[in-house]
Design brief:
Length: 461
């Protein structure tokens, strides 16, 4: 039977065997799953390798970078890779296998290759872009209609971020005096909680989209490291599926994150985002003022034209009325004279007593005169009534024209389902006024869209 060993003796044998098997240092690739620094400046890591499904862990090992070496490697890696050593990174490291009878197996890291990590991140970033394109969602948010009056803004940011403060001050103190409603949906903008926090904020906004016109994701400036948190498939996918336009102002001038690429619009800074929103409202106000002035001028011309027509008709009716009344009076006087002459003739021929005939004649003449006077009064009243009716008809016509103008106003036309389409501020009436790649604005009753002409379809003859 083999001799018995103490635990320590066995551990020392294992240590010596490993030393003999791995006398040299080795370059290995692994992912950092945990990373801590202790009070003495040493860096303790847990390295893992995952299965091809990127979910199950294939192997795991402890590693350490001693403080004297850690200070050099940390500075070297950050300067070369443009970001900090952190969990989730794939690294190429040079390690020495060591075994301690108390602490067990560990890998002592002596060197690190930042070029490998940068290349791995670039590959992952491109893989995210390719996946979004394969899913057919990469441009979905950019295809949404941008509101004409973006005054209700959901802000995804950190309350303590300088960029958020700059955005709020800029948009509230704009030179035009526009009033904007902003609601902050607080979120972490860097670190491990970024993905979960931003997605949670977007989900909360999605529950009340009717309260907002658009979403802005903003933060202050930062290092290239901070930008990497936005090269995230889940964040980007949520933005592509979001029902409102999303504007980003993450604060990097050189590079665009995947989040910037899928957003409706990406601007460099939070202040630039505020300026863009203010300018959109200003341009819409200018277009509405121009349309209002055109409508007022047109209404003024139509009213003046119809006022002149009414005055002209009134001037023509007054002389005609006087002529008609004078003619009727002359006709009545002639009839009275004829009646009197005939009465005298009848008296003479009949030989009746003059008194009786005279009395009968007066009575008959009086009756006829009364009837004629009544006829004259009725005729004059009818003439006045017809004149008033004609004038009223002209006024009603003017009122109808005025109502027609109101019905044809842009607000009424838009409310009935029609739209107003313009290019460069000019309202379109014919399709031939357009050319490909023109940017057109279409105004609805509750907003509008901005579109690009991709193809011109001519009417078949």
């Amino acid at each position: 039977m083999a001799g018995r060993l103490t635990l320590t003796e066995l551990q020392l044998i294992i240590r010596d065997s490993l030393y003999m098997a791995f006398p040299e240092m080795h370059w290995i690739t692994a992912e950092i799953s945990e990373m801590t620094e202790n009070y003495a400046g040493h860096c303790y890591l847990e390295l893992i390798e995952k299965q091809p499904d990127e979910k199950n862990i294939r192997s795991r090992a402890r590693a350490i970078i001693w403080s004297s070496r850690y200070r050099l490697l940390k500075s070297f890696f950050e300067n070369a890779a443009g970001q900090q050593l952190r969990t989730g990174l794939q690294v190429l490291i040079k390690v020495k296998v060591e075994y301690h009878e108390i602490y067990g197996l560990s890998l002592v890291i002596n060197d690190i290759d930042p070029a490998f990590t940068v290349g791995d991140m670039a590959l992952k970033r491109q893989a995210i872009i390719n996946q979004l394109q394969e899913d057919g969602v990469f441009t979905m948010n950019r295809e949404l209609d941008f509101p004409l009056f973006p005054r209700r803004i959901a802000v995804v940011s950190s309350r303590n971020a300088a960029g958020y403060t700059d955005f709020i001050n800029h948009i509230r103190n704009n030179v035009y005096g526009y009033v904007f409603y902003t609601a902050l949906f607080e979120s972490a903008m860097q670190g491990q909680e970024t993905e979960k926090s931003i997605i949670n904020a977007l989900d909360r906004i999605a529950e009340k989209t009717s309260l907002f016109d658009l979403v802005v994701i903003i933060r202050g400036g930062g290092s290239q490291t901070d930008l990497s948190w936005f090269d995230n498939y889940n964040i980007a996918y949520h933005i592509t599926q979001f029902p409102l336009p999303v504007i980003t102002g993450i604060g990097h001038e050189k590079d665009l994150s995947v989040t910037d690429m899928v957003a409706h619009l990406s601007l460099k800074t939070p202040t630039a985002v505020a300026d863009y929103i203010i300018e959109c409202v200003s341009q819409t106000e200018a277009r509405l003022n121009e349309m209002s002035a055109d409508i007022k001028n047109l209404a003024r011309v139509i009213l003046e034209k119809n006022r002149n027509r009414i005055e002209s008709a009134g001037m023509k009716l007054m002389p005609l009325s006087r002529i008609m009344i004078s003619g009727i009076r002359e006709e009545l006087s002639g009839m009275i004279m004829d009646l009197m002459n005939k009465g005298k003739k009848y008296i003479y021929l009949a030989g009746l007593e003059q008194a009786d005939l005279s009395s009968k004649l007066k009575m008959t003449a009086g009756s006829l005169l009364t009837n004629r006077l009544s006829y004259t009064v009725r005729t004059e009243q009818n003439l006045k009534r017809l004149t008033d009716q004609d004038i009223k008809h002209k006024h009603d016509r003017l009122k109808t024209l005025t109502n027609t103008l109101n019905i044809l106003s842009p607000e009424k036309v838009l409310s009935r389902g029609y739209t107003i389409t313009s290019v460069n501020g000019k309202i379109l009436r014919m399709g031939k006024e357009l050319k490909e790649n023109d940017i057109i604005d279409t105004l609805f009753s509750d907003g509008g869209i901005k579109s690009r002409v991709s193809q011109l379809l001519r009417k078949r003859k």
